[in-house]
Write a structure and sequence with these properties.
- With 539 residues, the protein is α+β, with helices and mostly antiparallel strands.
- 55% of the residues lie in helices and 11% in strands.
- It has a five-stranded antiparallel β-sheet with strand order 1-2-3-5-4.
- A hairpin with a 3-residue loop joins strand 1 and strand 2.
- The radius of gyration is 32 Å and the shape is elongated.
- 38% of the residues are buried.
Length: 539
């Protein structure tokens, strides 16, 4: 629990999240700026050799050149995701120490008076401000304190002993102490400015969020977007301090009046509310806010099967992982296909859009089927109405789905077979250069077993996959229960439990080391193919 009025703190928390998410881009910008400044300093040191002498020129060029290399390496590492929270502190310490080293070098070659009146001593304040750009009060105080202490130590240990007995009053200890006080003052000054900026940003964000918070759902970062909808990570936050992480899928404003798409959206909510199963993403709420419709769903911390495949070597998964995913989705389909309404009448639900982007994999080994926007309940739609259009994703449709025939659960099993075949082999099962060619392939292409592409896959697993991919649905695996039993019977290196689940957890956790989890494609979830095109293909 976070207190009785968590909504008051939402802008502060959200801004803090944004600042944390912006850490890497911010460090990249600072490293790029400092690298440019060091390159400029190195060039200037060499060009001024006639004025400051070879010794000082080469020493300053070596210092700035070495720092330029450091910032280049830092930039290289940051661009490859190698960020550590200690970097701002280490980098700030190095940054504000540059003038101290430069002053020490100048004392060595031109004496203390020269060092006390040259630009490096004046650059400390600017470098403290650079450190404060990281939006951290403690960092600003740290940089200012370090600069003041270093200046005083350089003065006491190197400059003061080298000053003549009679020198300018501006170079005496009291004046240098005053300079140190001014240097330290940069800390609270920049921290105060940062606080003012952050407070103003929070106030502005609060005003914006008052209009953007969807009732009791507080939106965080956007996880994905498609042509018609977008998905956000959100916090469900009613009164009393209760909070729950959810995913909010929101129709884009341009489609808020598209009746066909809104019907699909509502159908997804209606069917999702009927389906309560550990392998199905649960739909929690459907609502309207400021002219747009939104759907609140279970938040799965992980990534889609398609995203995981893209990150895998050769874009394929170990057989045990594929068996486990198949068994879990088979369980979801068995439940979905046998679901009855409140009167006990079978609904005859068919997903019609089962493909890798709609299978979610969590960091704790959960496998969940999502996106029921084009699912059909057979007893609620006439066969004539069902045959008006062909909906689905080309490359993952069963032959009867392409033809526009009445469907049953075996169409989803065919799509699951295509998905598992792809996960085993690392390449799409059906081949075609456009949607029409892929739809033709669904009806006509002879599919080779997975072991043809990946030697070592057992005959048993081959047989299970090929049983799902029979063009004649009367000969196809007849139900999700049968498929689940077949997969759970696998042994050895292809056993889904416990080996497949363990391997999946390892793969997902490694793939989701990035701070923002990946979510399913929210685009239009499936293509609508007119029947005229289908008939042309059949001819």
């Amino acid at each position: 629990m976070r207190g009785a009025t968590p909504q008051v703190n939402h802008p502060t928390r959200l801004l803090q999240e944004y600042l944390e998410q912006d850490a890497v881009p911010r460090e990249i910008a600072i490293a790029r700026f400092m690298r440019g400044m060091m390159a400029l300093g190195c060039t200037a040191s060499l060009l001024l050799v006639g004025v400051i002498g070879w010794g000082l020129s080469l020493s300053l060029a070596g210092l700035t050149g070495g720092l330029g290399i450091y910032y280049s390496v830092t930039l290289w590492a940051l661009r490859r995701g190698r960020y550590h929270p200690a970097l701002p502190w280490v980098d700030s310490a190095i940054t504000v120490s540059i003038p101290a080293v430069a002053c020490a070098i100048e004392v060595r070659f031109h004496g203390a008076e020269y060092s006390l009146t040259t630009p490096p001593a004046l650059a400390w304040g600017a470098l403290i401000v650079v450190c404060a750009l990281r939006a951290g009060k403690r960092l600003a105080y740290f940089a200012a304190t370090l600069a003041a202490v270093e200046y005083m130590l350089v003065y006491l240990l190197l400059m003061r002993p080298a000053l003549p007995p009679v020198t300018l009053s501006t170079l005496t200890f009291p004046m240098v102490l005053l300079r140190c006080v001014f240097l330290f003052a940069y800390g609270p000054l920049t921290a105060t400015l940062a606080s003012i900026i952050i407070n103003k940003a929070e106030a502005a964000l609060r005003a914006i969020r008052e209009k953007d918070v969807m009732g009791k759902y507080f939106l965080h970062e956007r996880l994905g977007a498609g042509g018609m909808a977008e998905v956000f990570r959100a916090t469900y936050s009613p009164e009393g301090g209760f909070e729950k992480q959810v995913a909010v899928k929101r129709v884009l404003p341009a489609y808020a009046d598209d009746e066909e798409f809104l019907a699909m959206f509502r159908r997804e909510a209606e069917l999702g509310s009927l389906l309560i199963h550990p392998n199905i993403v649960q739909v929690l709420d459907l609502g309207r806010h400021q002219g747009t419709v939104f759907l609140a769903m279970e938040y799965v911390q992980g990534l889609t099967l398609s995203a995981l495949l893209k990150q895998m070597p050769e874009q394929r998964l170990p057989p045990a992982v594929v068996s486990y995913i198949g068994a879990e989705i088979a369980s979801a389909l068995a439940y979905m296909h046998s679901r009855a309404d409140s009167d006990g009448q079978p609904l005859g639900l068919v997903h019609r859009d089962l493909n890798p982007p709609n299978i979610l994999l969590s960091r704790i080994g959960e496998v969940k089927l999502s996106d029921f926007g084009i699912a059909r309940a057979a007893n609620r739609f006439s066969l004539t109405q069902a045959a008006e259009t062909v909906r689905g994703k080309a490359g993952y449709m069963a032959p009867e789905q392409v033809r526009g025939d009445p469907l049953d659960g075996r169409a989803d099993l065919f799509a699951l077979g295509l998905t598992l075949h792809e996960a085993l082999t690392g390449q799409p099962t059906l081949h075609g250069h456009n949607q029409a060619a892929l739809m033709t392939a669904s009806m006509q292409q002879a599919v080779m077993p997975p072991s043809h592409f990946v030697p070592g896959i057992s005959r048993a697993l081959d047989g299970i996959i090929m049983g799902l991919l029979r063009h004649d649905r009367e000969r196809r695996t007849r139900s999700g229960e049968v498929l689940q039993q077949q997969l759970l019977a696998l042994t050895g290196s292809e056993a889904p439990l416990p080996e497949g689940r363990r391997q999946l957890i390892e793969l997902v956790r490694e793939a989701t080391s990035a701070p923002v989890p990946l979510m399913p494609d929210v685009g239009p979830t499936a293509k609508t193919v007119p029947m005229a095109r289908t008939r042309l293909i059949r001819r």
